[in-house]
Specification:
Rossmann fold; 3 domains; 5-stranded parallel sheet; 17 helices; binds nicotinamide-adenine-dinucleotide; binds L-histidinol; binds zinc ion; Histidinol_DH_monofunct; Hstdl_DH
Length: 436
Protein backbone atom coordinates (compact mmCIF):
# COMPACT_ATOMS: atom_id res chain seq x y z
CA UNK A 1 0.00 0.00 0.00
CA UNK A 2 2.66 2.56 1.09
CA UNK A 3 6.15 1.99 -0.27
CA UNK A 4 8.76 1.69 2.47
CA UNK A 5 11.73 3.95 3.05
CA UNK A 6 13.86 2.25 5.71
CA UNK A 7 16.17 4.68 7.48
CA UNK A 8 16.97 2.37 10.39
CA UNK A 9 20.66 2.06 11.06
CA UNK A 10 21.51 4.91 8.67
CA UNK A 11 22.66 8.46 9.37
CA UNK A 12 21.94 10.37 6.15
CA UNK A 13 23.41 13.85 5.70
CA UNK A 14 20.95 16.72 5.11
CA UNK A 15 21.64 16.48 1.39
CA UNK A 16 20.98 12.73 1.33
CA UNK A 17 17.84 13.18 3.42
CA UNK A 18 16.46 15.76 1.01
CA UNK A 19 17.16 13.40 -1.90
CA UNK A 20 15.23 10.64 -0.10
CA UNK A 21 12.14 12.80 0.43
CA UNK A 22 9.46 11.59 -2.01
CA UNK A 23 8.52 14.88 -3.66
CA UNK A 24 9.38 14.41 -7.34
CA UNK A 25 5.98 12.95 -8.32
CA UNK A 26 4.14 16.10 -7.26
CA UNK A 27 6.64 18.63 -8.58
CA UNK A 28 4.53 21.24 -10.38
CA UNK A 29 7.29 22.16 -12.84
CA UNK A 30 6.03 19.49 -15.25
CA UNK A 31 2.83 21.56 -15.63
CA UNK A 32 4.54 24.89 -16.31
CA UNK A 33 4.53 24.73 -20.12
CA UNK A 34 0.86 23.83 -20.52
CA UNK A 35 -0.04 26.46 -17.96
CA UNK A 36 1.99 29.16 -19.71
CA UNK A 37 -0.04 28.57 -22.89
CA UNK A 38 -3.33 28.88 -20.99
CA UNK A 39 -2.27 32.14 -19.32
CA UNK A 40 -1.00 33.63 -22.59
CA UNK A 41 -4.32 32.73 -24.21
CA UNK A 42 -6.20 34.66 -21.50
CA UNK A 43 -3.86 37.66 -21.88
CA UNK A 44 -4.53 37.72 -25.62
CA UNK A 45 -8.21 36.83 -25.88
CA UNK A 46 -9.66 37.64 -22.45
CA UNK A 47 -13.14 36.32 -21.71
CA UNK A 48 -13.34 34.30 -24.96
CA UNK A 49 -10.26 32.34 -23.85
CA UNK A 50 -11.74 31.70 -20.41
CA UNK A 51 -14.97 30.42 -21.97
CA UNK A 52 -13.11 28.17 -24.43
CA UNK A 53 -10.90 26.80 -21.66
CA UNK A 54 -13.93 26.09 -19.49
CA UNK A 55 -15.55 24.17 -22.34
CA UNK A 56 -12.40 22.07 -22.82
CA UNK A 57 -11.22 21.57 -19.24
CA UNK A 58 -14.39 21.88 -17.12
CA UNK A 59 -16.60 20.30 -19.80
CA UNK A 60 -19.10 23.15 -19.70
CA UNK A 61 -19.35 26.61 -21.31
CA UNK A 62 -20.68 29.22 -18.86
CA UNK A 63 -23.03 31.85 -20.32
CA UNK A 64 -20.67 34.53 -18.90
CA UNK A 65 -17.60 34.55 -16.69
CA UNK A 66 -18.78 37.28 -14.29
CA UNK A 67 -21.39 35.96 -11.85
CA UNK A 68 -24.39 38.33 -11.76
CA UNK A 69 -25.46 39.87 -8.43
CA UNK A 70 -28.86 38.12 -8.58
CA UNK A 71 -27.17 34.72 -8.80
CA UNK A 72 -25.17 35.46 -5.64
CA UNK A 73 -28.28 36.62 -3.78
CA UNK A 74 -30.18 33.54 -4.92
CA UNK A 75 -27.33 31.28 -3.81
CA UNK A 76 -27.27 32.95 -0.38
CA UNK A 77 -31.01 32.53 0.04
CA UNK A 78 -30.69 28.89 -1.06
CA UNK A 79 -28.04 27.84 1.49
CA UNK A 80 -29.36 24.87 3.48
CA UNK A 81 -29.80 25.90 7.14
CA UNK A 82 -27.39 23.27 8.51
CA UNK A 83 -24.71 24.27 6.00
CA UNK A 84 -25.24 27.97 6.71
CA UNK A 85 -24.94 27.28 10.42
CA UNK A 86 -21.74 25.22 9.95
CA UNK A 87 -20.25 27.95 7.75
CA UNK A 88 -21.16 30.71 10.21
CA UNK A 89 -19.51 28.79 13.05
CA UNK A 90 -16.41 28.26 10.90
CA UNK A 91 -16.32 31.95 9.97
CA UNK A 92 -16.45 32.97 13.64
CA UNK A 93 -13.53 30.70 14.56
CA UNK A 94 -11.38 31.62 11.56
CA UNK A 95 -12.09 35.33 12.13
CA UNK A 96 -10.99 35.12 15.78
CA UNK A 97 -7.78 33.21 14.93
CA UNK A 98 -7.04 35.52 11.96
CA UNK A 99 -7.38 38.64 14.14
CA UNK A 100 -4.51 37.31 16.24
CA UNK A 101 -2.34 37.27 13.09
CA UNK A 102 -2.42 41.05 12.62
CA UNK A 103 0.77 42.48 14.10
CA UNK A 104 0.44 45.74 16.05
CA UNK A 105 2.12 48.88 14.66
CA UNK A 106 5.44 49.57 16.39
CA UNK A 107 7.34 52.79 16.96
CA UNK A 108 11.10 52.71 17.66
CA UNK A 109 12.67 55.85 19.08
CA UNK A 110 16.39 55.76 18.25
CA UNK A 111 17.20 59.10 19.88
CA UNK A 112 15.69 62.58 20.30
CA UNK A 113 13.80 63.34 17.07
CA UNK A 114 14.80 60.03 15.44
CA UNK A 115 11.80 57.79 14.99
CA UNK A 116 11.01 54.72 12.87
CA UNK A 117 7.39 53.65 12.70
CA UNK A 118 6.46 50.23 11.39
CA UNK A 119 2.93 50.04 10.04
CA UNK A 120 1.19 47.09 8.37
CA UNK A 121 -0.40 48.10 5.09
CA UNK A 122 -3.02 45.85 3.44
CA UNK A 123 -2.59 44.86 -0.20
CA UNK A 124 -5.07 46.97 -2.21
CA UNK A 125 -6.75 44.33 -4.35
CA UNK A 126 -6.61 40.54 -4.19
CA UNK A 127 -7.82 37.57 -6.23
CA UNK A 128 -8.91 34.55 -4.22
CA UNK A 129 -9.03 31.11 -5.83
CA UNK A 130 -11.51 28.49 -4.63
CA UNK A 131 -10.94 25.05 -6.17
CA UNK A 132 -13.72 23.08 -7.78
CA UNK A 133 -12.62 20.18 -9.96
CA UNK A 134 -12.69 16.80 -8.22
CA UNK A 135 -14.49 18.28 -5.21
CA UNK A 136 -15.98 21.69 -4.38
CA UNK A 137 -14.60 23.82 -1.58
CA UNK A 138 -17.01 26.25 0.14
CA UNK A 139 -14.68 26.00 3.18
CA UNK A 140 -11.90 27.54 1.05
CA UNK A 141 -14.10 30.61 0.50
CA UNK A 142 -13.98 31.19 4.25
CA UNK A 143 -10.24 30.40 4.51
CA UNK A 144 -9.42 32.95 1.76
CA UNK A 145 -11.93 35.72 2.39
CA UNK A 146 -11.88 36.01 6.18
CA UNK A 147 -8.14 36.72 6.61
CA UNK A 148 -8.27 39.17 3.68
CA UNK A 149 -11.14 41.03 5.36
CA UNK A 150 -9.45 40.93 8.76
CA UNK A 151 -6.32 42.43 7.16
CA UNK A 152 -8.43 45.27 5.73
CA UNK A 153 -8.09 44.50 1.99
CA UNK A 154 -10.29 47.02 0.13
CA UNK A 155 -11.05 45.09 -3.06
CA UNK A 156 -11.65 41.35 -3.22
CA UNK A 157 -12.35 39.23 -6.32
CA UNK A 158 -13.07 35.52 -6.11
CA UNK A 159 -12.91 32.77 -8.75
CA UNK A 160 -14.06 29.17 -8.82
CA UNK A 161 -14.43 26.77 -11.76
CA UNK A 162 -17.77 26.59 -13.57
CA UNK A 163 -19.65 23.41 -12.68
CA UNK A 164 -21.09 21.18 -15.41
CA UNK A 165 -23.69 19.90 -12.94
CA UNK A 166 -24.98 23.47 -12.53
CA UNK A 167 -25.02 24.54 -16.18
CA UNK A 168 -21.66 26.31 -16.01
CA UNK A 169 -22.42 28.30 -12.85
CA UNK A 170 -20.10 28.48 -9.87
CA UNK A 171 -21.20 25.86 -7.33
CA UNK A 172 -24.18 27.39 -5.46
CA UNK A 173 -22.70 26.74 -2.00
CA UNK A 174 -19.47 28.47 -3.02
CA UNK A 175 -21.49 31.40 -4.40
CA UNK A 176 -23.73 31.45 -1.30
CA UNK A 177 -20.79 31.52 1.13
CA UNK A 178 -19.13 34.29 -0.90
CA UNK A 179 -22.37 36.31 -0.70
CA UNK A 180 -22.67 35.58 3.02
CA UNK A 181 -19.23 37.16 3.46
CA UNK A 182 -20.25 40.20 1.41
CA UNK A 183 -18.22 39.37 -1.71
CA UNK A 184 -19.84 40.80 -4.83
CA UNK A 185 -17.12 40.20 -7.45
CA UNK A 186 -17.20 36.52 -8.36
CA UNK A 187 -16.04 34.80 -11.56
CA UNK A 188 -16.85 31.38 -12.96
CA UNK A 189 -13.34 30.50 -14.06
CA UNK A 190 -10.92 27.81 -13.00
CA UNK A 191 -7.37 26.54 -13.24
CA UNK A 192 -4.47 28.40 -14.78
CA UNK A 193 -6.75 30.65 -16.85
CA UNK A 194 -8.29 32.03 -13.66
CA UNK A 195 -4.89 32.74 -12.12
CA UNK A 196 -3.77 34.49 -15.33
CA UNK A 197 -7.00 36.51 -15.40
CA UNK A 198 -6.36 37.72 -11.84
CA UNK A 199 -2.75 38.63 -12.59
CA UNK A 200 -3.31 40.48 -15.87
CA UNK A 201 -6.98 41.52 -15.68
CA UNK A 202 -9.67 40.92 -18.32
CA UNK A 203 -11.24 43.73 -20.33
CA UNK A 204 -15.01 43.90 -20.70
CA UNK A 205 -15.97 41.99 -17.54
CA UNK A 206 -14.73 44.47 -14.93
CA UNK A 207 -11.79 42.30 -13.84
CA UNK A 208 -8.90 44.59 -12.91
CA UNK A 209 -5.49 43.07 -12.16
CA UNK A 210 -4.90 42.10 -8.53
CA UNK A 211 -1.80 42.60 -6.41
CA UNK A 212 -1.93 39.20 -4.76
CA UNK A 213 -3.43 35.84 -5.77
CA UNK A 214 -4.12 33.37 -2.98
CA UNK A 215 -5.84 30.05 -2.50
CA UNK A 216 -5.41 26.34 -3.01
CA UNK A 217 -5.65 24.28 -6.18
CA UNK A 218 -4.32 21.37 -8.18
CA UNK A 219 -0.94 21.20 -9.94
CA UNK A 220 -2.15 23.47 -12.75
CA UNK A 221 -3.26 26.15 -10.30
CA UNK A 222 -0.02 25.81 -8.32
CA UNK A 223 2.09 26.01 -11.50
CA UNK A 224 0.15 29.08 -12.67
CA UNK A 225 0.78 30.81 -9.33
CA UNK A 226 4.49 30.11 -9.76
CA UNK A 227 4.39 31.68 -13.25
CA UNK A 228 2.55 34.90 -12.40
CA UNK A 229 4.89 35.84 -9.56
CA UNK A 230 6.64 39.04 -10.48
CA UNK A 231 3.43 40.40 -12.00
CA UNK A 232 1.48 39.81 -8.81
CA UNK A 233 2.24 38.36 -5.38
CA UNK A 234 1.04 34.93 -4.23
CA UNK A 235 0.63 33.22 -0.87
CA UNK A 236 2.36 29.83 -1.23
CA UNK A 237 1.71 27.42 -4.09
CA UNK A 238 -0.82 25.47 -1.94
CA UNK A 239 -1.08 22.61 -4.44
CA UNK A 240 -1.98 18.93 -4.01
CA UNK A 241 -2.44 18.14 -0.35
CA UNK A 242 0.02 16.21 1.78
CA UNK A 243 0.02 14.77 5.27
CA UNK A 244 2.90 13.38 7.32
CA UNK A 245 2.17 11.56 10.59
CA UNK A 246 4.83 10.95 13.19
CA UNK A 247 3.58 8.13 15.40
CA UNK A 248 4.98 5.71 17.96
CA UNK A 249 3.40 2.53 19.28
CA UNK A 250 1.23 4.50 21.72
CA UNK A 251 -0.83 5.88 18.81
CA UNK A 252 -4.14 4.51 17.59
CA UNK A 253 -3.46 2.76 14.26
CA UNK A 254 -6.99 3.24 12.99
CA UNK A 255 -6.95 7.00 13.72
CA UNK A 256 -3.69 7.27 11.80
CA UNK A 257 -5.05 5.26 8.85
CA UNK A 258 -8.22 7.37 8.78
CA UNK A 259 -6.21 10.59 8.72
CA UNK A 260 -3.97 9.36 5.88
CA UNK A 261 -7.07 8.44 3.85
CA UNK A 262 -8.76 11.79 4.62
CA UNK A 263 -6.06 13.73 2.81
CA UNK A 264 -5.46 11.17 0.04
CA UNK A 265 -9.14 11.78 -0.80
CA UNK A 266 -8.32 15.17 -2.37
CA UNK A 267 -6.27 14.14 -5.36
CA UNK A 268 -4.44 11.22 -6.97
CA UNK A 269 -1.34 13.37 -6.41
CA UNK A 270 -1.98 13.80 -2.66
CA UNK A 271 0.83 12.47 -0.47
CA UNK A 272 0.26 10.34 2.64
CA UNK A 273 3.36 9.63 4.73
CA UNK A 274 3.71 7.74 7.99
CA UNK A 275 6.96 8.00 9.95
CA UNK A 276 7.31 5.61 12.86
CA UNK A 277 9.93 3.96 15.06
CA UNK A 278 7.78 0.84 15.48
CA UNK A 279 7.60 -1.73 12.68
CA UNK A 280 4.79 -3.56 14.51
CA UNK A 281 2.73 -0.36 14.67
CA UNK A 282 3.43 0.29 10.98
CA UNK A 283 2.03 -3.17 10.11
CA UNK A 284 -1.11 -2.40 12.08
CA UNK A 285 -1.58 0.93 10.27
CA UNK A 286 -1.07 -0.76 6.88
CA UNK A 287 -3.79 -3.28 7.75
CA UNK A 288 -6.25 -0.55 8.82
CA UNK A 289 -5.29 1.50 5.79
CA UNK A 290 -6.12 -1.33 3.38
CA UNK A 291 -9.52 -1.74 5.03
CA UNK A 292 -10.28 1.96 4.95
CA UNK A 293 -9.16 2.42 1.36
CA UNK A 294 -11.40 -0.45 0.26
CA UNK A 295 -14.38 1.05 2.08
CA UNK A 296 -14.04 4.73 1.27
CA UNK A 297 -16.21 6.59 -1.27
CA UNK A 298 -13.39 7.86 -3.50
CA UNK A 299 -11.42 4.63 -3.25
CA UNK A 300 -9.84 4.77 -6.71
CA UNK A 301 -8.43 8.24 -6.17
CA UNK A 302 -7.29 7.37 -2.63
CA UNK A 303 -5.65 4.12 -3.75
CA UNK A 304 -3.78 5.92 -6.50
CA UNK A 305 -2.55 8.52 -3.97
CA UNK A 306 -1.34 6.03 -1.37
CA UNK A 307 0.45 3.76 -3.85
CA UNK A 308 1.93 6.81 -5.62
CA UNK A 309 5.64 7.62 -5.43
CA UNK A 310 4.77 10.68 -3.34
CA UNK A 311 3.46 8.54 -0.43
CA UNK A 312 5.56 6.40 1.91
CA UNK A 313 6.01 4.50 5.12
CA UNK A 314 9.25 5.67 6.70
CA UNK A 315 10.84 3.42 9.33
CA UNK A 316 13.22 5.17 11.71
CA UNK A 317 15.39 4.25 14.68
CA UNK A 318 13.86 6.82 16.99
CA UNK A 319 11.76 9.96 17.10
CA UNK A 320 14.78 12.24 16.65
CA UNK A 321 15.34 10.63 13.26
CA UNK A 322 11.58 10.95 12.64
CA UNK A 323 11.70 14.72 13.16
CA UNK A 324 14.82 15.00 10.96
CA UNK A 325 12.88 13.33 8.16
CA UNK A 326 9.79 15.49 8.78
CA UNK A 327 11.86 18.69 8.69
CA UNK A 328 13.40 17.61 5.38
CA UNK A 329 9.97 16.72 3.95
CA UNK A 330 8.40 20.04 5.07
CA UNK A 331 4.85 18.65 5.25
CA UNK A 332 1.78 20.75 4.59
CA UNK A 333 0.10 18.98 7.51
CA UNK A 334 2.09 17.34 10.31
CA UNK A 335 0.37 15.14 12.88
CA UNK A 336 2.22 14.21 16.07
CA UNK A 337 0.78 11.09 17.65
CA UNK A 338 3.36 9.96 20.21
CA UNK A 339 3.67 9.63 24.00
CA UNK A 340 5.72 12.80 24.51
CA UNK A 341 4.19 15.23 22.00
CA UNK A 342 6.02 18.27 23.38
CA UNK A 343 9.43 16.70 22.87
CA UNK A 344 8.69 16.00 19.19
CA UNK A 345 7.05 19.40 18.72
CA UNK A 346 10.14 21.14 20.09
CA UNK A 347 12.25 19.53 17.33
CA UNK A 348 9.93 20.47 14.46
CA UNK A 349 11.10 23.35 12.30
CA UNK A 350 9.24 22.88 9.02
CA UNK A 351 5.49 22.30 8.68
CA UNK A 352 2.51 24.20 7.26
CA UNK A 353 0.36 23.39 10.28
CA UNK A 354 0.93 21.03 13.20
CA UNK A 355 -1.78 18.84 14.71
CA UNK A 356 -0.92 17.57 18.16
CA UNK A 357 -2.39 14.48 19.81
CA UNK A 358 -5.04 11.93 18.97
CA UNK A 359 -7.90 14.43 18.98
CA UNK A 360 -6.49 17.03 16.61
CA UNK A 361 -6.89 15.36 13.19
CA UNK A 362 -6.14 17.29 10.00
CA UNK A 363 -9.83 17.36 9.07
CA UNK A 364 -10.45 19.46 12.18
CA UNK A 365 -8.15 22.09 10.68
CA UNK A 366 -9.68 21.62 7.23
CA UNK A 367 -13.01 22.89 8.51
CA UNK A 368 -13.56 24.03 12.04
CA UNK A 369 -10.45 24.43 14.20
CA UNK A 370 -10.22 28.14 13.41
CA UNK A 371 -6.78 27.68 11.83
CA UNK A 372 -6.38 28.26 8.09
CA UNK A 373 -6.39 25.26 5.73
CA UNK A 374 -4.60 26.99 2.82
CA UNK A 375 -1.07 25.73 3.40
CA UNK A 376 2.24 25.34 1.53
CA UNK A 377 2.74 22.02 -0.26
CA UNK A 378 5.51 20.28 -2.20
CA UNK A 379 8.04 20.95 0.58
CA UNK A 380 7.44 24.70 0.50
CA UNK A 381 6.79 24.65 4.25
CA UNK A 382 10.58 24.63 4.48
CA UNK A 383 10.43 28.34 3.61
CA UNK A 384 6.80 29.44 3.21
CA UNK A 385 3.83 29.90 5.54
CA UNK A 386 0.14 29.12 5.44
CA UNK A 387 -2.41 31.71 4.42
CA UNK A 388 -3.11 34.23 7.18
CA UNK A 389 -4.13 37.83 7.70
CA UNK A 390 -0.39 38.60 7.51
CA UNK A 391 -0.34 37.30 3.90
CA UNK A 392 -2.43 40.32 2.94
CA UNK A 393 -0.31 42.83 4.90
CA UNK A 394 3.02 44.44 4.13
CA UNK A 395 5.22 46.00 6.78
CA UNK A 396 6.13 49.57 5.80
CA UNK A 397 8.69 51.61 7.69
CA UNK A 398 7.92 55.31 8.09
CA UNK A 399 11.01 57.37 8.84
CA UNK A 400 10.77 60.66 10.75
CA UNK A 401 14.02 62.49 11.74
CA UNK A 402 14.19 66.13 12.76
CA UNK A 403 17.10 68.48 11.98
CA UNK A 404 19.13 67.74 15.10
CA UNK A 405 18.73 64.00 14.72
CA UNK A 406 19.84 64.12 11.07
CA UNK A 407 22.82 66.31 12.02
CA UNK A 408 23.88 63.76 14.60
CA UNK A 409 23.95 60.89 12.10
CA UNK A 410 25.34 62.96 9.17
CA UNK A 411 28.99 61.80 9.65
CA UNK A 412 27.85 58.17 9.37
CA UNK A 413 26.12 58.89 6.07
CA UNK A 414 29.11 60.85 4.76
CA UNK A 415 31.53 58.05 5.63
CA UNK A 416 29.45 55.33 4.03
CA UNK A 417 28.51 57.29 0.90
CA UNK A 418 32.20 58.09 0.29
CA UNK A 419 33.15 54.45 0.82
CA UNK A 420 30.54 53.41 -1.77
CA UNK A 421 31.66 56.17 -4.17
CA UNK A 422 28.18 57.64 -4.12
CA UNK A 423 29.06 61.13 -2.84
CA UNK A 424 25.75 62.69 -3.93
CA UNK A 425 24.11 60.68 -1.19
CA UNK A 426 26.24 62.41 1.45
CA UNK A 427 25.74 65.78 -0.28
CA UNK A 428 21.95 65.36 0.01
CA UNK A 429 22.50 65.47 3.77
CA UNK A 430 25.19 68.18 3.97
CA UNK A 431 23.15 70.41 1.62
CA UNK A 432 20.63 70.79 4.39
CA UNK A 433 23.23 72.23 6.76
CA UNK A 434 25.68 73.98 4.37
CA UNK A 435 23.04 76.39 3.02
CA UNK A 436 22.73 78.11 6.42
N1 LIG B 1 -2.65 23.12 -0.13
C1 LIG B 1 -3.83 23.54 0.23
O1 LIG B 1 -3.95 24.45 1.04
C2 LIG B 1 -5.06 22.90 -0.36
C3 LIG B 1 -6.33 23.14 0.19
C4 LIG B 1 -7.44 22.57 -0.43
C5 LIG B 1 -7.27 21.80 -1.57
N2 LIG B 1 -6.03 21.61 -2.07
C6 LIG B 1 -5.80 20.90 -3.32
O2 LIG B 1 -6.55 21.59 -4.30
C7 LIG B 1 -6.75 20.70 -5.38
C8 LIG B 1 -8.15 20.82 -5.89
O3 LIG B 1 -8.11 20.27 -7.16
P1 LIG B 1 -9.35 20.17 -8.09
O4 LIG B 1 -8.89 19.53 -9.36
O5 LIG B 1 -10.46 19.55 -7.33
O6 LIG B 1 -9.81 21.68 -8.37
P2 LIG B 1 -9.03 22.92 -9.02
O7 LIG B 1 -10.01 24.03 -9.06
O8 LIG B 1 -7.75 23.15 -8.36
O9 LIG B 1 -8.72 22.46 -10.50
C9 LIG B 1 -9.70 22.42 -11.48
C10 LIG B 1 -9.19 23.17 -12.70
O10 LIG B 1 -8.00 22.52 -13.18
C11 LIG B 1 -7.86 22.80 -14.54
N3 LIG B 1 -7.48 21.58 -15.25
C12 LIG B 1 -8.04 20.35 -15.13
N4 LIG B 1 -7.44 19.49 -15.98
C13 LIG B 1 -6.49 20.18 -16.64
C14 LIG B 1 -5.53 19.85 -17.65
N5 LIG B 1 -5.43 18.61 -18.14
N6 LIG B 1 -4.73 20.81 -18.13
C15 LIG B 1 -4.80 22.09 -17.63
N7 LIG B 1 -5.69 22.45 -16.69
C16 LIG B 1 -6.51 21.53 -16.19
C17 LIG B 1 -9.19 23.30 -15.05
O11 LIG B 1 -9.04 24.62 -15.45
C18 LIG B 1 -10.14 23.19 -13.85
O12 LIG B 1 -11.00 24.30 -13.75
C19 LIG B 1 -6.37 19.30 -4.87
O13 LIG B 1 -5.11 18.96 -5.39
C20 LIG B 1 -6.29 19.49 -3.37
O14 LIG B 1 -5.38 18.61 -2.77
C21 LIG B 1 -4.93 22.15 -1.50
N1 LIG C 1 -7.02 19.42 3.37
C1 LIG C 1 -7.16 20.62 2.56
C2 LIG C 1 -5.86 21.43 2.73
O1 LIG C 1 -4.83 20.83 2.14
C3 LIG C 1 -8.29 21.54 2.91
C4 LIG C 1 -9.67 20.98 2.78
C5 LIG C 1 -10.79 21.62 2.39
N2 LIG C 1 -11.82 20.76 2.44
C6 LIG C 1 -11.36 19.64 2.88
N3 LIG C 1 -10.06 19.75 3.08
ZN1 LIG D 1 -8.71 18.16 3.38
Amino acid sequence: MLRTIDLRGTRPTQRELLALVPRAATDVSAALEVVRTLIDDVRERGEAALLDQAERLDRVRPSAVRVPAEELEEALAGLAPDIRDAIERTIARVRAASAAQVPPPETTVLGDGAVIEQRWQPVTRVGLYVPGGKAVYPSSVVMNVVPAQVAGVRSIALASPPQAAFGGRVHPTVAGVAALLGITEVYAMGGAGAIGAFAYGVDGIGLDPVQRVTGPGNVYVAAAKRLVQGVTGIDAEAGPTDILVIADDSANADFVAADLVSQAEHDELAAAVLVTDSAAFADEVLERLAERVAATRHRDRVREAVIGAQSALVLVDDLVQATDFANAFGPEHLEIQVRDTDDVLSRIENAGAIFVGAYSPVSLGDYAAGSNHVLPTGGQARYAAGLSAATFLRPQQVIRYDEAALREVAPVIAALSNEEDLPAHGEAVTARFDRR
